[in-house]
């Protein structure tokens, strides 16, 4: 019986609790946490109050349930923001709007997840606030992931490669800039420097930071700080003379938020940011938005609003409506909300903390799903949450401050990139994100110029570029120090100076000699000095090889080069078969065939009328074979009589004259040029022998021979000058010298110009070039490369080459003066073809004439002979033999035959 009262009480409590759950709530509490006294907060507070007022006075939503909005001030503090969040949760709020700070959002999101209270932020743009880590966090503003992608696209759009980022050192600043760095890397750009500011920075911190950045090369700045009505960054930049046409200033949407909030701004403030380009979260124009702006102006007139409306104010208004629509949908399905305490929080009461008052929102997951499913049109456009718990991206406006006013010069969206049309006009169209269709309006940059700024500076007069120059002691035509002067001269210096003239900007520099002046310096060491920032660049005969390209960037090669083998030569003019060298085998064969062909053709044309081409068969055969050869002499025994024969002879003599002159010139060249005579035939034979090998001090040949070709270092001999080259080669390997020298082709060509007793063996076995070295990612490397190409196209490189190397004979292009230039049939095929065609035509004319004469003769014979019918049936072979016999007869005999047939007499036999 004692249990009955207890059971009755429990039953009554359950019944009343069930009735309460089945009834629609009279009041629903939602909270809001943000910083009241801030650029965003001053617009967000009246906007949310207006939204709550509109909702409670709208009979189509909540059906009489009052939406109670409770707002708490975070005061820009994570600690105070967390305390205010606990206060709101104690009051059984079903959702919390805010915070505006990304740092506070990280903290409160963990509380919201634990107590299952949806947290809907209208201003926390930190891209690391992910749905995977914080499942109850929802964002109704655009993530900085997209904003930084827009900034990276803007940098790429104008062709800049390096950027300096200025940001506040908190979650919002750091994480946003990290995302920017990732986007730039994808576009082959680089975030060169990250300059962090304290959260509450002053003018002194900004001044120190910007002074430091002036010594850096890039001049493209991305400013990512909190909204600042005083625009301290740009005010300090103006004082430091950093708002001129040498600089580019890009700002994230903090600038547009600031400008939209305090418009109309004073002209003196706007003049500070002339030429700055920024982003603004895009909100499409609508009747609903226009009416709210009109309402806002009235609120400002009656004193209930102290600021202009910015994008975050519009998003705050829409966020309240988003939560209200979700609550409306939830109540229609589930009727009421319930909360419950947890044992862990109740146990914490013993510690003195009032954590037991906190309750878990039992319906938090259901309400969260309703928020995610909500889809409506608000002041900022379509309000729809994607799978990442972010609002569907609507793009950005690209703004430019010019003539003390803000101009929208274009738009950016994730699907279409830059366009002069608003993003909503691209909705439903096929993705057109292509570099070919990217467009923006005209932008006025700092300094008032409309031309795209260069965006970086190489050096200034206070700190000119340090250009290293090898202090050579040999082959001074390439580079050397002027005697009794600090000047530098040489072919490489002239190429650099002329190339620099074509660079479209001034580059202050000074030459720095590298080396002791007693031996050539290590060129690998020069490249290392550039890589370690001891030098800004290096100019000279610097070969572009693999290990150096890993340390520095090279310009376009201005001189082709490669390794060759230099060795002693001997005169081989005594060769017994040297007379055969002018022609190739094919040329000799074609010449022999042509001699025989012409002999046959001339014999055919002359045989019937010229006694020199008649006689016994043996004599005629000798005549055919020897006639063409006899034309090599001024007079020959056989003369041509027929017009066709003489025509063929004219063409043949012309061909013979050209061939004879070419043969004579080639043989003369062979007999006067020295040929190589060495047991070394190429790089392979040089490797297999154990003879010493010379190389030039400082050249990459040493590393190539020892590391790539695996030649023992004990075989390699360092040589420092052309005089040492000559001495070592003349001594030979048996007398303390070397068998050969491996060096770059230009040096060898210059050496051979004055040394006829030496030559190049084999072919060049490496290929490469000389270029100018610069530090990694230096823009000057690209511009100097373009200038070198222009010098090559306009012939200036060749002019400089002739200036330095043609005083005593130009350097050869291949350095191969050992093998004579043989004459190939391809050089004479036109003449051979002409001679053959003329000869063939003459033969055909002769043949047709003979056929005509033979046919006439046969007709006459048939008319006079009684046995013509029998002879008409003569076999074909007999006709051919008769025709050949007819051709073999002399012309006078044929004429006699004609006369006999015309004057009938006893016929004479053909054979007589």
Helices and strands, with pairings:
Blueprint: H1 3-22, E1 27-34, H2 39-56, E2 66-73, H3 78-90, E3 95-97, H4 102-115, E4 119-121, E5 137-139, H5 144-157, E6 162-168, H6 171-186, E7 190-197, H7 203-214, E8 220-224, H8 232-239, E9 248-251, H9 253-262, H10 267-270, E10 277-281, H11 287-301, H12 311-334, E11 339-340, H13 343-347, E12 360-361, H14 364-373, E13 375-378, E14 381-384, E15 396-402, E16 405-413, E17 417-419, E18 465-470, E19 480-481, E20 488-489, H15 491-501, E21 509-514, H16 523-531, E22 537-538, H17 546-549, E23 553-554, E24 559-561, E25 563-568, H18 585-606, H19 617-630, H20 643-672, H21 683-688, E26 693-696, H22 701-708, E27 716-719, H23 722-731, E28 740-744, H24 745-752, E29 758-761, E30 768-770, E31 773-774, H25 779-793, H26 796-805, H27 829-864, H28 868-871, H29 876-888, H30 891-902
Parallel strand pairs: 1-2, 1-3, 3-4, 4-5, 6-7, 6-8, 8-9, 9-10, 18-21, 18-22, 26-27, 26-28
Antiparallel strand pairs: 10-15, 11-12, 13-14, 15-16, 16-17, 19-20, 22-31, 23-31, 24-30, 25-28, 25-29
Report on this structure.
This protein is of the alpha/beta class and 912 residues long. Strands 7-6-8-9-10-15-16-17 form an 8-stranded mixed beta sheet, with helices on both faces. The radius of gyration is 49 Å and the shape is elongated. 39% of the residues are buried. Belongs to the glutamate-gated ion channel (TC 1.A.10.1) family. GO terms for molecular function: ligand-gated monoatomic ion channel activity.
